[in-house]
Here is the input.
Amino acid sequence: MNLTVARLTVRGLLGRRRAILLLVVPVLLVLLAAVASASSADKHDLAVKILGTLGLGTLVPLLGLVVGTGVISTEIDDGSIVYLLAKPLPRWRIVLTKLAVAVLTTWVFAAVPTLVAGLILDGTADGLALAYTVGTLVAGAAYSALFLLLGVVTRNAVVVGLAYALIWESLVGNFVKGARTLSIQQWGLSVAKAIASPGAITADVALGAAIPLLLVVAVGATAFATVRLAGLTLNADD
Here is the structure.
């Protein structure tokens, strides 16, 4: 962790009113929860649908995409990453620092609203608020690592990330059951299921598979991003 790199990354990520834009979906989630809690519908079903579909299924991947790519792709695109790479810092430290900023930002803008929305919707019943919050934390970390890697390896990181989150996870995953095995969203849901009361949440991926897959994606993406960033130094010098 390098504090200077972290400070510059936070400034680039949240400056110029970008933080306000990142708040739009989380605020909508909380407002929707407040409105839904006033209805006569079953609170448990509402909590599962809103926290699972809008929270874990939409808010987390979109924030992970914006934040994960945003911590590094802009610097690569405008060439300013060369000045950072010229510093006597190991590439792994640069990547880990930017990943830490991405993960913490995703947690603040996704996990906190999810917890608040869950408490508004169903209180502490069945542990749904805590379960979806923890699911958001682990999925948010994996999304951040994956999308940071995309920011390093391709200039079309947002397009590729949207294709994964919207087409693979949301579209293909809804029609092809086996596709859910390769879904960060489903891995997070599996963790949430393990924390909630029995039967409160359903998930298609077993916890014994979800946790190793989350670790493989997070660690593998971070390691690969470090290797590619080292290669980017050579290209810049050339």
Residues 91-122 form the longest helix (32 residues).
